[in-house]
Amino acid sequence: EDQVTQSPEALRLQEGESSSLNCSYTVSGLRGLFWYRQDPGKGPEFLFTLYSAGEEKEKERLKATLTKKESFLHITAPKPEDSATYLCAVQAGNQGGKLIFGQGTELSVKP
Amino acid sequence: SQTIHQWPATLVQPVGSPLSLECTVEGTSNPNLYWYRQAAGRGLQLLFYSVGIGQISSEVPQNLSASRPQDRQFILSSKKLLLSDSGFYLCAWDTHSNQPQHFGDGTRLSIL
After folding, report:
1. Residues near A23 by Cβ (< 8 Å), separated by ≥ 6?
2. Do A43 and B94 touch (CB under 8 A)?
3. 3-state DSSP percent of chain B in helix, strand and coil, to 5
4. CA A53, CA A68: separation in Å to the nearest integer?
5. How far apart are CA A31 and CA A90, in angstroms?
6. Which of A4, A10, B65, B101 is 20–30 Å from B46 (CA)?
7. Secondary structure of residue A82 in the 3-state scheme
8. What residue of B is the nearest CA neighbor of A85?
9. Reading across the β-sheet that carries A62-66, which strands appear in turn?
10. How far is CA B93 from CA A107, B9, B24, B31, B109, in A?
11. For residue A89, which residues of chain B lie inside 8 Å, CB to CB?
12. What pLDDT, in 10s, does the model give residues A11-53?
């Protein structure tokens, strides 16, 4: 069964304290792994797509990496405005556009 | 640029009442369209998707149905709401199945 697990469920950081979020997946034929940011009461906002092991993408303080079993979202010197829930989702090779989501990591960055 | 609209933003309905949530996409043609539900503190669960007008695929058996009467319009409906239908409903679109999906701002549905 295709599955996505994110850890930790919640993460509290001080401003400037770098850390990483984990997304472990089990899927038949990965077509793509997607990271989203979701603010309270809003829809998810697309951040990155990763397609193959070894691939990396960066955007401001965020960097996403991918291996054959997991993806990491690294946050360097976070600011309070980075506080949000970060969602990971995968597309399997035989299921069209269907996204399988993890439960998310709720990130809180304190000044 | 492409935009996606969902309405209403919030809705409070009694048990047994009907439901109609609407989603429209602007700035693109023949998008794939999706309805998700997000329970509190949980990830998103795909309910329906559509690759074209009148083409609907259901992912989970439930009290809901979906329709796509026009290319960029997607509607989520129910004839009689249940308490378990409460949640945050999100519409999304993409142009190709391995491209990122883009989400609307959702409808918060509360059933009393």
Report:
1. A4, A5, A6, A33, A35, A70, A71, A72, A73, A88, A102
2. no
3. 5, 55, 40
4. 5
5. 8
6. A10
7. helix
8. B41
9. A3-7, A19-26, A70-75, A62-66, A56-59
10. 26, 18, 10, 6, 21
11. 44
12. 999 999 999 999 999 988 899 999 999 999 999 999 999 999 9
Provide the sign of the torsion angle of the four alpha carbons B71, B74, B78, B84, taken in this order: positive
Please list, in sequence order, all residues whose beta carbon lies within 8 angstroms of the beta carbon of residue A50, skipping any fewer than 6 positions away: A32, A33, A34, A35, A56, A57, A64, A65, A66, A71
Q: Looking at the partner chain, which of A36, A87, A97 has a beta carbon nearest the beta carbon of B32?
A: A97
Nearest CA in chain A to B43: A103
**Interchain proximity B44–A44, CB inside 8 Å:** yes
Residues of A in contact with B100 (CB under 8 A): 34, 46, 49
Which among B3, B4, B20, B9 is positioned nearest to B81, based on CA atoms? B20
Asked if residue B38 lies in contact with residue B107, where contact means CB atoms within 8 angstroms, the answer is no
B57-110: pLDDT as tens digits: 998 867 899 999 999 999 999 999 999 999 999 999 998 767 899 999 999 999
- With a CB cutoff of 8 Å and minimum separation 6, the contacts of A15 are A77, A78, A79, A80, A109, A110, A111
